[in-house]
Amino acid sequence: MELAAKYNAAEVEDKWYAYWLAHKFFHSEPNEKDPYTIVIPPPNVTGILHMGHVLNNTLNDVLIRNARMHGKNACWVPGTDHASIATESKVVAKLKAMGISKEDIGREEFLRHAWEWKEEHGGIILQQLRKLGCSCDWDRTRFTMEPALSEAVINTFVYFYKKGWIYKGVRMVNWDPEALTAVSDDEVVHKDTQSHFYHLKYFISDGQGNPTDKYLVIATTRPETIMADAAICVNPKDERHFWLKGKKVLIPLINREIPVIEDDYVEMDFGTGCLKVTPAHDVHDYEIGLRHNLPVLEIIDDHGRLNEKAHILVGEDRFVARKKIVKMLEEAGNLLKVEDYTSPVGYSERTNAVIEPKLSAQWFLRMDTLAKVALETVKSGRTKFIPERYVNTYRHWMENAHDWCISRQLWWGQRIPAYYLPNGQFVVEATPEAALEAAQAICPDIKAEDLHQDEDVLDTWFSSWLWPISVFDPEMPGHPDHKPNKDLSYYYPTSDLVTGPDIIFFWVARMIMAGEEFMGREPFSNVYFTGIVRDKIGRKMSKTLGNSPNPLDLIETYGADAVRIGMLLCSSAGNDIFYDEAQIKQGAAFCNKIWNSYRLVKGFSVDPSVAQTPAAAAAIRWFDAKLSETVALVEDHYRKFRISDALMAIYKLFWDDYCAWFLEAIKPAFGQPVDPETYRATLGFFEALLKLIHPVMPFITEELWQNMEERQEGETIMYAAAPTVKPYAAGTLVDFELAEEAVNGVRGIRNQKNIGPKETLELKVKGAFPASVIPVIEKMGNVSMETVDGFGDAQGVGFMVRTYEMFVALSGLVNVEEEIAKLEKDLAYQQKFLSGVRGKLANERFVANAPAAVIENERKKEADSLSKIESLESQLKVLRNS
RNA sequence: GGGCGAUUAGCUCAGUUGGUUCAGAGCACCUGCCUUACAAGCAGGGGGUCGACGGUUCGAAUCCGCCAUCGCCCACCA
């Protein structure tokens, strides 16, 4: 097959992906080999691929392919998350566009639409991952809301309820007035927000509900909530407010009488020292209210509008009401002053609506024991975090974990299995039948239609925290007594998890909790936290900024291998990624380089009667060692999750060592054949390089590997054994490096003197230079080389390769003055260096304290420097005499 | 307000327990080359007092203190 001059990714990629699928190369079943398991961080079922996914899944794929080539039974379980809020809001928006509201059609009809939407858009992202080359075991694809996994979720709920860790309670929760649901503390983002501090006069009541002329002043950012005030609170130690003791004051505008109370919570030096207490609409006020037995008056409805209990501004949105009430207060003479004020305000992570603290009945899961156990998992190192510093973040959160609000006022999700009896009691059971039975134990004559299931669904994370267990054995989580099935026993605990640090609490921490609770051990050994993908000037990628490229377009243009490599080149663990298309171009260039090096090798004609050149023999010996050295380095990088370093090491091995040095050293003259031994070695190295880079660039490596020789149907580079480290003599590497430096020296002189590469030069070297690499220097530098005792008084240019003096004879081309100036500069540098070294050696304390090896090294530096100085001086002498 | 992390070449980052001529890599840049695998290429080259100051040490990019700037996480001062 003739190879095109340029690599065409598009032609190659679909072909091999189809081949891999057809042969089920990604599929894993338990066997006698060691498992290597990854569960995918399940993307939202209706999501589409963005650059963050590309980074994350490329890393996952590199790890899984690398493990596979190292003889592990590699299993990467894919799947999607039902993402209750995100998906529900998309469906709501779609229905809204059709003029339908979710309340109009009711739960069942809404869910029908939602499933329809899921069928239509769901799993697009999984198709896109195929384009990227991900080697997921598609036969194992899971969905967090598929029947088996939903059952696991329900069973888990029942399990914790019966254990007494799930309770229903009326609590102040974070209410999202747009999504119309409670959200957990972790779904609230606090942002400093410009607002105002309104100083309001509350007049003292005369006891009959009439204002006197005395007043106190409170400062608030939320004047629209004054109608819900239950008291004014001052610090009991605050002398300024002693006169208020036992007084009652009137709420402005509505003139309702409220008491003045005392509580330590109030800071004396903040604001005016008087706090308005609004138990229904502020978390702390609620707690003060509990302590002082204050009434709770809710004046804001679920949509964030004032209700009739506010008496005024009824029906107005809270922010509109704020503006209007300020004006009313001003007109009524209650507004003393307005200050600019910046304070942290909670926003819903999902809708960006300002969170309204709201009192409501919600379901909670106790976190104390779960968090304690899961903290120990990480502290003990059974689960390692990379980078390690995330352990601190984790510890802090775990030590302060609040109970988890797991109910959501949504429909898309697993419905809470609590069933209410007509008398308000409830039972929690996995099925309606079991619930009926339990209910009948309370009220014998109750019938199925008398029971009413809780309207709420569970937080999405309440299903994804089971993911590393439930994808293998959905029976397990809710039934810890259940014996794990074959898959779960084999694949659990999984090996590595690659995810973003933004979901360390939502997901990672909770998977560890569930893993410990149900399996008695950690769900994964390592968690590798990636950074956030930003554009090249550091902005987060977002739809509104339009700075996020479509990964599929990039794959189309540059090929999946190039996109993968481009993402990895700049991704050290835990650092944000500054995405730049230039990196992908670099990846594409690398593909092309690999492609063309293969074209060269494949174009060689082999002649058994030709003898191997000494240069080729030396190059083979060297590259063999170089390969082993690099493989060891790469494996070390992989162990430490330094994926970009591993990639860079292979990149340089391929480009610099193999292409620039090895191939050039063994390359026969144009039109000449190569000997069989060299050819075999060259192809062997090429194959090793393909295998080494395959985890990162799966497509081009498969294409070339298949092309190298006749392969059987069903063979693949995916399962080829990774190159191993072989012992080698250290001198092999050093000798070749000397040759490289000599060649570089000659090339430098050519460049400087404008001598073309085709003109053969004479190179002399003083002393015992390793003979085996001399042919390499002669070939690569286009020189004829000889070892001499001295350079005599020939005209030319000298240079040093480590301690070897080299000399290129150049009659007539040498500018004597220039050479002298250059040598003098070198000499001055050497003398300064030498005096530095000697200073050190003359320092008694250095000699007394430094380790012997260090001192020995200083002595060697001194000797080397002396010999260099000697050489420079003798060269100068020759030049000055000429 | 509390905590964590960062600051090294124009950019993105390495630099492992203080000591090999340790100040590095990739990209970018400059110069010269269309040399028969590759111009998505080849050869060569310039560029940083390692954020500031102070300290420990024979020796500091590396350890300590303080300051500055940036980023992230957590947090109920109305």
Structure description:
Helix content is 45%, strand content 17%. It is of the alpha/beta class and 882 residues long. The protein has a four-stranded antiparallel sheet with strand order 6-5-14-16. Helix 19 runs parallel beside helix 21. The longest helix is centred in the last third of the chain and has 30 residues. 41% of the residues are buried. The mean pLDDT is 91. It binds one RNA strand of 78 nucleotides through strand 8, strand 12, helix 7, helix 10 and strand 25.
Care to count the β-strands? Answer: 29
The shape, in one word, is elongated
Distance between the termini: 61 Å
Give the oligomeric state.
single chain
The total count of helices amounts to: 27
C-alpha Rg (nearest Å)? 37 Å
Determine the fraction of residues in helical runs and give it as a percent range.
Answer: 40-55%
Give the rounded overall mean pLDDT. Answer: 91
Class per helix and strand makeup: alpha/beta
User: What is the strand content?
Assistant: 15-25%
Spans of at least 5 consecutive residues whose pLDDT stays below 50 are none
- Major sheet strand order: 6-5-14-16
Q: Characterize the main sheet.
A: 4 strands, antiparallel
Write the layout of secondary structure elements.
Layout: H1 9-22, E1 35-39, H2 51-69, E2 73-77, E3 79-80, H3 84-97, H4 102-121, H5 124-132, E4 142-143, H6 147-163, E5 166-176, E6 181-183, E7 188-205, E8 211-220, E9 231-234, E10 248-250, E11 257-262, E12 274-277, H7 283-292, H8 318-332, E13 335-348, E14 356-365, H9 368-379, E15 384-386, H10 390-399, E16 404-405, E17 407-408, E18 418-420, E19 426-428, H11 432-442, E20 452-453, E21 457-458, H12 461-464, H13 467-470, H14 486-491, E22 494-499, H15 504-519, E23 524-529, E24 533-534, H16 551-558, H17 560-569, E25 577-578, H18 581-603, H19 614-639, H20 643-666, H21 676-693, H22 698-708, H23 730-753, E26 761-766, H24 774-781, E27 783-788, E28 796-801, E29 804-809, H25 816-842, H26 844-849, H27 852-881
Parallel strand pairs: 1-2, 3-4, 9-11, 15-23, 22-23, 24-25, 26-27
Antiparallel strand pairs: 5-6, 5-14, 7-8, 7-13, 9-12, 10-11, 14-16, 17-21, 18-19, 18-20, 26-29, 28-29
Helix pairs in contact: 1-22, 2-17, 3-4, 9-10, 9-15, 16-17, 17-18, 18-20, 19-20, 19-21, 19-23, 19-24, 20-21, 21-22, 23-24, 25-27
This protein binds one RNA strand of 78 nucleotides through strand 8, strand 12, helix 7, helix 10 and strand 25.
